[in-house]
Each structure stands twice: as structure tokens, then as C-alpha cells.
Amino acid sequence: MEFRPCIDLHEGKVKQIVGSTLGQKDVVENFISEKDASYYAELFKRDGLKGGHVIMLGPGNEEQAKLALTAYPGGLQIGGGIHADNAKKWIDMGASHVIVTSYIFHDGKLDMERLERLVEAIGKEHIVLDLSCRKRDGKWFVVTDKWTKFSDFEVNQANISFLEQYCDEFLIHAVDVEGKKSGMQEELVQDLAKWTNIPTTYAGGVRSLEDLERFKELSGGKLHVTIGSALDIFGGSLPYRDVVEYCK
User: Fold this and answer.
1) Which of 35, 88, 131, 217 lies at a 20 to 30 A Cα distance from 55?
2) SS3 at position 97
3) Which is nearest to 128 in space by CA: 28, 198, 222, 58?
4) What share of the chain is helix, strand, coil (3-state, %, to 5)?
5) HSE of 30 in the Cβ direction (CA atoms, 13 Å)?
6) Domain range list for the chain
């Protein structure tokens, strides 16, 4: 189990927001940093944390993303507006991987042509598929377009096994609890631990060392974890340093 840190960028600033409010008129912001993205990238580099993700939430965030990748080349993944035509640019800029959701899941369906183009452009070893999901009728489905639209793509063992042929890792946000510091979706954690055979990072609701202990127990130590709004470096009460030490 690794701690995978995050740098979320919104309107040119490092922020922590409730992701499910992104498509709404009033975005709920948990934290706005006075520091730029390079500060956090350097912190993660010093602590030897690899595979953290930089997410560009909308336009106007490229400069901050570049600062992070320059500060920690090879140590961070990049997501937000990535497609087959610009993915190589971000890899060349220092990202270890690109993260995609809406590009390959559009009009509510998995677009294999786009996924294959992306693999052709940068190789599966540089691809993280974000299968952020919500529950509907007792099943998990990928949601896209700032988590506002359900796709018809079910997150289950068969579909995960299929997608593992086209990527190096998965990043999976439990959309209904992400950013709310209200506890994780335990059933999803257990399902992902059973279904995945490649590195997979779970995001959503972890807010204490007790939650981390429970996460480790539920996942058998098989999944990685990311924590955002709950951390003291992002205005929360959970000491970042304690999380780093615990996961080491």
C-alpha cells in the first residue's frame, strides 16, 4: 500500500474542492492554497512519494501543471483535458503517466478507437485510466464530464480485466464521498481489491489514521490510497507527515 499524493488545480490555483460540485454553478471549495504547485511537488519529491497525480480541473491550469512537473520530473502523473494528440507533450514535459476518463468514455460509452490511439501515441506503460464511479441499481458505473454523466460502462471484474490490457494503472474516485471527509466507500474498496491485477489507487473519504488502518484491512494492502481535503497541508486536520510515516 502506497500513499499517492495529489495536486488539484482549479482556475490557476492549487485547491481542494468537492469534485461532485464541479459541474454546478457554485463549486464547493474546501481549500485554496497560497502556495504554487511546485511547492507541493517538491514536498512529495523530498518524501520519496511517487505516482501522485496532478489534475487540471478545467482551463487555465497548464502553467501550474508545468511548474509541478518541472519540480518533480518522472514523479507525477497528469490528468485533465488529456487526449491522444497532446499526451506525448505532457510525457515529454516530465509526467510519468497521463490520466484519462472523459476522452475515452464519451457519449456514455467506451470509445475503443480513442483508447487505441492513445496507446499508439505513448504506449500503455504511460497510461492511467480513471474509472471514477457512482453506484446505480446496485452496480458501479463510470461517470464522466466532471462526474455529471453516467456512462453505460460498469466497473466490474470482467471490464477491469479487459482494460488492464490497455493501461499501466487505475485511479478510481468514489465520487459520492470524494472531498467530503465523510469516510470511504468500503464496498468499493473491497471490490477493487478483488478485481484488480495492476496498481490501483483509491480516492475518496479517507480522513484519519483509523480510516487508513481500515482501508489497509479491507484492501489487504493491495490498493494504493490518495487523500486530499483531509490533510493538514490542504487545510484539514490529518497530519500529512503521519500519513507519510504510516504508509512507509
Assistant:
1) 217
2) strand
3) 198
4) 35, 25, 40
5) 23
6) 6-243
β partners of residue 110: 105
How many whole angstroms separate alpha carbon 106 and alpha carbon 248? 38
User: DSSP alpha helices (H): ranges in the chain?
Assistant: 37-46, 62-71, 87-92, 112-122, 157-163, 186-195, 209-219, 240-247
Nearest alpha carbon to residue 130 among 179, 80, 189, 86: 80
Name the CATH topology of 6-243.
Answer: TIM Barrel (3.20.20)
Read off the pLDDT of residues 119-174 as tens digits, 9 standing for 90 and up: 999 999 999 999 999 999 999 999 987 677 899 999 999 999 999 999 999 999 98
Non-local CB neighbours of 176 within 8 Å, separated by 6+ positions: 20, 134, 135, 185, 204
Contact 174, 185 (CB under 8 A): yes
pTM over the 0.90 mark: yes
Strands 224-226 and 97-100: unpaired
Residue reference for cell 485511479: 171
CA 36, CA 205: separation in Å to the nearest integer?
Answer: 25
